[in-house]
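Notes taken during the Thursday session

The instructor put the following on the board and asked us to keep it in front of us for the whole hour. The protein is Maltose/maltodextrin transport system permease protein. We were told not to look anything up and to reason only from what is written here. First, the residues (537 in total):
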Amino acid sequence: MNPTSAASPSPLAAAYGTLPPSLWSRLAQALRWPVVAALMLGALYLVFSIYAAGQTAWAAGALALFGGAFYIYLRAGFAWRYLFPGVAGMAVFIAFPLVYTAQIGFTNYSSAHLLSQARVRAYLLDQHEVIESGVMGFSLHADGPEFRVVLNAPGTAQPRYVSPPLALRKTREPLKVTMLAAQDEHLPLQSPLQAALPLRDLVEHREALAQLQLLLPDRSGPEAQLRYLGLREYGPVAPHYLEQPDGSLLRVADGQRFAPDGKLGYYRNEAGEILQPGYKVMVGLQNYSRMLFDAEFRGPFVSIFVWTVLFSLATVAGATFIGMFLAVLLNWEDLKGRTAYRTLLFLPYAVPGFISILVFKGLFNQNFGEINAILDALFGVKPAWFADPLLAKLMLLIVNIWLGYPYIMILCSGLLKAIPSDLYEASAIVGAGPWTNFWRITAPLIIKPLSPLLISAFAFNFNNFVLIALLTDGRPDFLSTKLPAGQTDILVSYTYRIAFRDSGSDFGLAAAISTLIFFLVAAMSLLNLRLMRKSQQ
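Then, after some discussion, the predicted C-alpha cells were revealed:
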C-alpha cells in the first residue's frame, strides 16, 4: 500500500481547500445581513399576526423578546449572548405564567365569565329569530371567475333577485350586497345564468356565503335584509336585543334595558335580572377576601390548609424516621446480606409512583382488598378506608411514607459514610451503647446536612397532587359546602377541583389559591437556601 495515498485528501475536501480563507470570510459577511433581514421580517410577521388576532399585549411581549434577541446578538457583548437564552426561557416559562396566574386571581374569570365584554355584547346582539314569511331559497351560479347568488320566489325555482358578480372570499366583517331584481336592465340576462352549482360547491363556499347580508331593493324594515340560514336558504331575522347609544341593550320583546355591570360582569337591568353569558372583569381582592371572610368557604379552606401542612409534616417525619433507622441498621457491618436487604428496601423508590399508588388502591379496597382480608381474618374487622375521613387520611400517610422512605434511606446511607469511625471507637471506650451513639453522634452529624433536603421533601409533599388524585380523589367530601371540597384534598388538588372539576370552573379563585401556594413554597425555598448556606459554613 502506498502510504501517501491513504493520507491524500478527498476530491471534495481538495475542492473546498482551494478556496482562500479570505473568500470564505467575504462570503459569510455578504450573507450575514440578508439572513438577518429575513429573520427580522419573519419575526415582524409573527408579531403582526399576533396583533391582528387581537392579542395586543402578547404582540408587545413578542416584539420585546425578538427586539432584545436581535440587539444582543448583533450589538451586545459575548457574555449576554450566552445568558440570553436562559434569561428568555425563565421569562417565558416561569415569570410569565406566574404573573398571568396572579393576574387572573384578581378577576372573576370562570366558566360563566369566559368572554370579554365586547364579545358578550356581540353575542347578545346576534341573538335573533327568523321571520318565516320572508325566507327565500337560493342557488349559486358561476360567472367567470366570480359567482352570482340567485334568490328564488317562495315555492318556485323562478329567479326573483340576482346579486352582482361576487368573489366569495372569507372576510372578517359581514359583506352587504344589494340585490338586483331579475327584470333589472343592469342584469346581463342576454348571456343566461349558468347551471346552479351542486351542493358540494355550496359547502366549499359556505363560510363566504355566511358573511353575506343581502339587501332587497323593494322591501323595507327587517324584511329588507336577508341573512344566511343554511345551505339552501336566506331570510330576514328579528334581533332580540338592540344596542343603545349609552352602551346598554334594549330587549325588543318587553322594552327592558340591560346596562353593563362592571362589578358583577353581567348585563343587568334595574330589577336585578342578568343576561348570560357574563364577561371577565377585575374584582380586586375579592377572591382573597373569600378565603378570609366568607364563612361557608373559609371552613373547608382552613381545614384543607391545616391538613395539607399536617400531611406534609407527618410524611416527612415518618419517612425520615423509617429511612434513618434502616440506614443505620444497614450500616452495621456485622449484618449479613446487607446488599440484598438494601436492594429490597430500595424497590419502592425504583417502581414508578403511580403504579405503586394504584396497587395500594386495590390493596385497601374495602370488600376485595388483601389488607382488609387479613384484618378480617385476624380481628374480624373491615375498615372503610375510602369512606371514613380519618382512615382515608391514615391510608394516604401510609402510602406516602412507603413511597418516600427509600429516598431518605439513601441520603442517610451516604451521610453515614462521612462520619469518622474514630468517634464511635472513642464512644466504645467510654462504654456508650448504640442509642447513645445514635443520639450523640449519628443524629447531630446527619441532621444538619439533611435539613435542606427535608425542607425540599416537605415542599414536594405540599403539592403532591398525583397521590391524592389517584388514591382518594379528595374524597370523602365535606357536607353542605358552597364549593365541593374533599376531606383528603390538599391545597393543590382542591385548587384543581375548583378550576377544572365540579365547582363551575372558577379560574379566578383557583388562581388566587395557586398564588398563595406559590408564596408558601417560595418561603420554604428561601428557608432551604438559608439552611444550605449555614450547613456550608
